[in-house]
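Protein entry
_____________
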Amino acid sequence: MTTLAYRRDIDGLRAIAVLAVVLFHFGVPGVSGGFVGVDVFFVISGFLITSIIWREREAGRFSFLDFWARRARRILPALIVMMSISLVVGWFLMAPKDYSELGRSIHNQVIFISNLFFMRQDGYFETASDMKPMLHTWSLSVEEQFYLAFPLVLVFVSSRIKQWRSVLCVLMLVSFGASAWAVFHHPEKAFFLLPMRAWELLAGSMLAVMPVRAKQMSPALAQTVSLLGLGLILVAILGYDADTAFPGAAALLPVLGVVGLIWANGQHPTLVARLLGSRVLVGIGLISYSWYLWHWPVLVFGKYASIYGLSTWALAALFVLSLVLGYLSWRFVEGPFRERRLLAGNRSILVTGVIVLLGLGMMGKGLVWSSGVAWRLSPEALQFAQTHTWSPALMNCLSDDKKNKHRAFCHFGPQAAAPKALVWGDSHASALIPALKDSANQYHLNITQAGYAGCLPFYRKENTPGCRAFNDRVTQLIKDEPFSDVVLAARWSLYVYGQRNGDTGASIHDPATGKYDRATAEQLFTEGLGALVQQLRAQGHRVWLVKEVPLQDFNVPYRLSRLAMLGRPTDREGLPLAEHMQRQAYISNLFERMAAADSGVQLLDPAPKLCDTNGWCRVELAGKSLYTDDNHLSISGTLFVQGFLEPFFRTLRNASIESDVSRNVVQ
């Protein structure tokens, strides 16, 4: 095996990887598959560290201590600085819940399991991914776990098994198979976990330990393979998007592309190697690790600090800032440690690294224990920020796909009272609980509430098994209990039109094509809701359809808390009523037609309580946020609009009085 020489083309390849990731995260058009840059890094890492281990093994001087010390020099200093500065910036910018989550993510990263942490953080009410400053460290945890385990595996199999390369090949194929399966069955595990990502690193490892004869190729073949390899990477970067089932088989393009490039460029000078070895790309490649570390928190904190979104110029400024910080980190943090100008000894870098990481981990844990150091904020800003969190009482009444598929239904008011009513729907039905509970006690009525996050109260193909099982439970409950009235409440437009930002992932798709089509979604929604209402009416239930609250185009508590922190007015935020009416036009018309056709179908609309005569739908009242995000009412908001439920409760109360009178007459 020849000595591992410096290869400019590999630094150029790092530049392609980091540019793809950064441009993708900054939303540059055309780079919809830039996330594959991480996979390029994985293959490069697997190739380089295996080359180092194997070269030193053959020379008889491999040391686990030396290897892990080199990894510590490469990874820890810049990572520690980035996390430390993020904690400082978060102190001034972040709401308590988010600052607490930043601390939690740092605590998990210092023990190299942030990939596990973020894998479990995709719940219905979790902070959006683009507001998590440490989210990008998941890939570092995958690599760190590989660095800890792989040297032990390589040394063990190569010293005890004659066909040890075959063992590595089998491990790679098993990992690939697991990834290809999991991407359709457990996509979050396929994305975040080492066992499903290890094949990408092992692809680079196999190339590093390939026998010399197997690596040989002609100059013409080297040119062809290198061009093809670059082409595969670019096809993935430019052609993939958020709908691509990834990683799985789709990751073969960038992985095979990198393997081909490293292989071919290591044999003969190629045109691609000259391109990758250019001064600009090599320069970017040298700072790629530090730039990767800094680009994401810079973007997240920039979004967090902006009140009304980031302009193109602001995004460009943040892009440049992240590049400058990446360079400074490489020049003044990475360099001194890698060149052993600081903490030159192996034990000194490892011991110091462990001590500092433990300190950061304790700081992160302290933020969790202190609930994000809430006293940092002014009382007004704190009150807005705390609205972002749903109370345990509400969460305990909301089922979801994670760990709460079989939660018991919630009951309010005197349980022996008659008649009984059911409120059924998704999280918007659960958001009504404060008003339901208060009115049920006030009117002495028996209310049952059944809510499942992201689940329409009627079947459709896209429903998850948990949602279908939940609706089956509710259907059986309706058969078993003498409900006089059934209230249907949901974020209806989500299933018909998707999110306000255009994401149609949660909407009704055409069962024939599996794709979203607006006309088809409206038709299937009409048919599904109509069938459910008809069924309920046939069973003798009065049906109440609850229209949606106005959906905002921003996270309300975030914006209000940040405005309060800046001393700016908060009572001017909201949404024009015309926008709300336009989005709800088809659904409102459908509801009204159903109510006109059957006197047993009634409508309830919270919007008039939130929207004034000037056509403005408010989000704040007397220093309190009326929303918990951009679409769910807060406790204050629900109690503020409670009056819109009056027709429902008066009808129930009248029915209860009539029932009592009838009983007395019979007696």
Notes: The chain has 29 helices and eleven strands. Residues 66 and 118 are 31 Å apart (CA to CA). The chain has a mean pLDDT of 91. The first helix runs from residue 8 to 25.
